Amino acid sequence: MDRFYITTPIYYVNDVPHMGHAYATVNADAIARWHRLIGDDTLFLTGTDEHGAKVAEAAAQNGVSPKEWTDRTSARFQEAWAGLNISNDDFIRTTDERHYATVQRFLQKIYDNGYIVKDTYTGPYCVACEDYYTQEQLVDGKCPVHGRAVTEMSEDNYFFRLSAFEDKLLAWYESDPETIRPSSKRNEALSFIKGGLKDVSITRTSLDWGVSVPWDQDHVFYVWYDALINYLTAIGYDEDPERVALWWPKVHHLIGKEIIRFHCVWWPAMCMAAGIEPPAHIFVHGWLLVGGKKLSKSMASGEEAPVKLTEITPASLIADVGVDALRYHLLRDTPLGTDGEFSIEGLTSRYNSDLANNLGNLVARVATVVGSKCEGIGPAPDPESPLAPAAATAVANAREAWERFAPHEALEATWRLIGAANQELETTEPWKAEPGTVDAVLGSSLEVLRIVSLLIAPAMPATAAEIWSRIGLSDTVDAQRLPEAARWGGYPGGLAVTKGEPLFPRRKSGT
Ligand code: MSP
């Protein structure tokens, strides 16, 4: 049995979850669900990043202690993920005791190995990024990511000797061209390294909201150096070597494009410094944009926002279109690796074309005609149906696309099969035929619906379960294992088919 360990970044709790976070988490969830479906022992980790100046600032602005603030906001993420049907196996908070202890052990090891030293650092610092910049990196004297003013900071700090890892990182990149995908992002990370690596300040004395440095209690670790280690905390680093060996280094980190440097340069070097293998795979996705701009906290608070983000939270969209329609839109319309524009119009048009017209229509038609021509009892599929090879192609294409972290292509392949089944019904018009002559085409349509339920399950788990039960199947979709379960001929026939309410009633455009 294969193992599959996938992570999202852990989200800062200075803000509440927005559609950008939902995009990232739904993609990781769908990929994890696919791997469970093909029988992989799967570990899907997400969580919240709770230390650092930005979170302490948010707590102070809201007049509560950092602990109270992080408890409250971390809960908002957990609620949002429950609402989006996210199937994470663990939820890590960097304020968890297990994490605190792991960070101290991991960084103590790097210190003992001679890769952490004391020095003074001065430079422009962006509180929103929690990061220092060089003068050259600033844009008009401001943070290149947030466009906000930077502060000149000077601290007597401990430094991670990142410069000692230039050659080792280059050799690691050379050893496997697939470690960082897509290749454009690999090249971006490589150029950071080739541009020369400077040592990084990794502790702070100006702040106490963090993990304290075990060998010097006046310092806390810089939030990024604490956060990255979460991926090891969850698998029992230094406590349960057998468990670590099960999941590491074959991890898949799904990350956004603005945090490449931390994950593709710092993190592998930190692993090397601690004497463990760097992560096997980092996949970099783009941003969900609104009006061409990245969704962010500043937009959530109303500034410059072309659309009021408070009106398009994941929860409000779920209440409006349903959880699976939202998941489908996020997975289908913004391919992983590129930026995508989020709009209500885009969501509605995708909903009407793919969900109402194609999938919903197929389910409704088949159930209606089975009701009128077969007394509601679904016939068995035709082994010679032209839909059989179409289904096999869809399954193979979907599998290959999920493996490449291309959910949109897996769904496209599935919708080609749905289109073929609708077309077959148009051609054979079983609703006009005599009862008794329609079994083959209706049985084959039901078989397509069974296979489609399996293929959409990672993206739309509730819809998959609903179709599965409407066509009379017992057991659950989750209990099925691909590829065996998706072979043509699995629908037994003789099952009661239920018509039910329309799965996706058409929406007026723009609503
Ligand atoms: N706390 C750090 C990550 C530490 S991981 C060890 C952080 N948090 S974040 O909340 O700012 O961002 C978390 C992830 O959400 C990032 O990968 C980021 O790209 C993603 N997104 C935030 N807004 C986004 C969009 N508008 N679109 C897509 N993803 C975006 O960075």
What is the count of β-strands?
A: 19
Q: Strand fraction band?
A: 15-25%
Provide the low-confidence segments as ranges: 298-306
CATH homologous superfamily (4th level) name of the largest domain = HUPs
Reported CATH architecture of the largest domain: 3-Layer(aba) Sandwich
How many helical stretches? Answer: 18
Distance between the termini: 45 Å
The biggest sheet amounts to: 7 strands, parallel
* Computed Rg: 26 Å
What structural category characterises the helix and strand content?
A: alpha/beta
CATH topology of the largest domain: Rossmann fold
Gist?
By secondary structure, the chain is of the alpha/beta class. It has 18 helices and 19 strands. About 45% of the residues lie in helices and about 15% in strands.
List the defining traits of the structure above.
511 residues; alpha/beta; Rossmann fold; Isoleucyl-tRNA Synthetase, Domain 1; 2 domains; seven-stranded parallel beta sheet; four-stranded antiparallel beta sheet; binds 5'-O-[(L-methionyl)-sulphamoyl]adenosine
Your description of this structure?
With 511 residues, this protein is α/β, with parallel strands linked by helices. The chain folds into two domains: 3-321, Rossmann fold, CATH 3.40.50.620; 344-496, Orthogonal Bundle (Isoleucyl-tRNA Synthetase, Domain 1), CATH 1.10.730.10. Helix content is 46%, strand content 15%. The protein has 18 helices and 19 strands. The strands form five sheets. Strands 1, 2, 3, 4, 8, 13 and 14 form a seven-stranded parallel β-sheet that branches. The chain has a four-stranded antiparallel β-sheet with strand order 6-5-7-9. Helix 10 links the parallel strand 13 (251-256) and strand 14 (281-285). Helix 16 runs antiparallel to helix 17 and helix 17 runs antiparallel to helix 18. The protein starts with a strand and ends in a 15-residue tail after the last strand. Bound molecules: 5'-O-[(L-methionyl)-sulphamoyl]adenosine.
